[in-house]
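Ops channel
N.P.: pipeline sanity check, posting one input/output pair.
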């Protein structure tokens, strides 16, 4: 046996002996088996700990470890195995570069997955309404994108540093270039900062019905550059976040109740007795609706063709369709009651007096 080993040490293939190749193969196979064994043991230990805890952070860590795939083990083992051999510089450079790239990418992907999973857990564990969760999800998604972008930037800089690139001068030059890029992308950056302002200040959240000028719709998504609304006609309206922060926005999504204010005009030949009874009629009509709260009814003016009553009541709902249903019920009830009482609605009329 010793003779065989001695012969292998003396047998030179290229710049390495047969023993060197055998050692490299052993390291290659041993590292693959060892890494897989370590992964299995770590997962078993983490799963045991996860069963004893109620938090889901450990579950997220387990998922990250589970997604480490064999190709990474193979490349890592190949990198270590080649360290024992004397190889041409080009091969050593290629293997080292490939390992550095894969290692940086694998770490960045793993951290990105961990960030996504932790943010997802944070949203699920939040107590509150669906709107609150949707708003929190929008904020955390933005934070997650920024965090993952920083992770990839750091990974790229570390890789360049390992390749011998002067990262300090590169960062300095990027800083100067960044100013020029910032000036060129002023509008884009303005939208980005506006989106952060929207997510922090919360003037509206996903699901809110808002009105901007002549346009209205429900918020479907708050992005980094724009916000998407679904209009009552079903079309998608896309508005830049910078525009949203510079205009007056009416938010109907946070209404606890809606106020209805309208005017009814009756004819001039209506008797004073019926005029005095109209406020009480309106009170009873509105009180008959379970979701309505009567406010007032007053005879407010003598108009050209009508005697005007101003009526106000509250609809105890934030849903616009329910509000319209209630308003319709009140209007139909007014029509029926006035018809039964012989009270006529006024409309524009003109009386012509002819004299001889």
């Amino acid at each position: 046996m010793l003779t065989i080993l001695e012969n292998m040490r003396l047998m030179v293939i290229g710049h390495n002996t047969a023993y060197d190749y055998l050692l490299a193969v052993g390291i290659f196979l041993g590292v693959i088996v060892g890494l897989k064994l370590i992964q299995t043991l770590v997962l078993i230990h983490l799963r045991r700990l996860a069963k004893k805890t109620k938090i889901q952070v450990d579950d997220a860590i387990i998922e990250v470890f589970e997604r480490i795939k064999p190709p990474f083990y193979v490349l890592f083992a190949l990198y270590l195995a080649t360290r024992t051999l004397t190889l041409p510089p080009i091969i050593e450079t290629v293997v080292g570069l490939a390992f550095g790239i894969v290692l940086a990418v694998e770490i960045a992907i793993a951290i990105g997955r961990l960030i996504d999973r932790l943010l997802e857990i944070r949203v699920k564990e939040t107590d509150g309404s669906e709107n609150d969760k949707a708003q929190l999800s929008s904020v955390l998604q933005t934070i997650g994108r920024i965090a993952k972008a920083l992770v990839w930037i750091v990974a790229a800089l570390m890789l360049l540093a390992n390749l011998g690139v002067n990262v300090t001068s590169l960062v300095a030059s990027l800083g100067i270039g960044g100013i020029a890029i910032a000036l060129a992308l002023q509008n884009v950056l303005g939208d980005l900062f506006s989106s952060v302002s929207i997510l922090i200040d919360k003037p509206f959240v996903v699901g809110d019905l808002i009105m901007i000028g002549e346009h209205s719709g429900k918020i479907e998504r708050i992005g980094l550059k724009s916000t998407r609304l679904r209009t009552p006609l079903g079309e998608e309206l896309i508005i830049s976040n910078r525009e949203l922060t510079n205009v007056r926005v009416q938010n109907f999504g946070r209404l606890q109740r809606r106020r209805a204010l309208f005017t009814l005009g009756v004819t001039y030949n209506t008797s004073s007795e019926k005029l005095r009874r109209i406020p009480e009629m309106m009170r009873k009509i509105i009180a008959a609706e379970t979701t309505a709260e009567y406010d007032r009814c007053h005879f407010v003016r003598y108009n050209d063709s009508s005697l005007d009553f101003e009526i106000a009541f509250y609809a105890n709902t934030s849903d616009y369709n329910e509000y319209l249903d209630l308003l319709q019920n009140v209007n139909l009830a007014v029509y029926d009651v006035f018809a039964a009482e012989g009270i006529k609605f006024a409309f524009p009329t003109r009386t012509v007096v002819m004299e001889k």
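N.P.: looks fine end to end. The beta strands are 12-13, 16-17, 209-212, 215-222, 226-230, 236-240, 249-251, 258-266, 292-302, 307-315.
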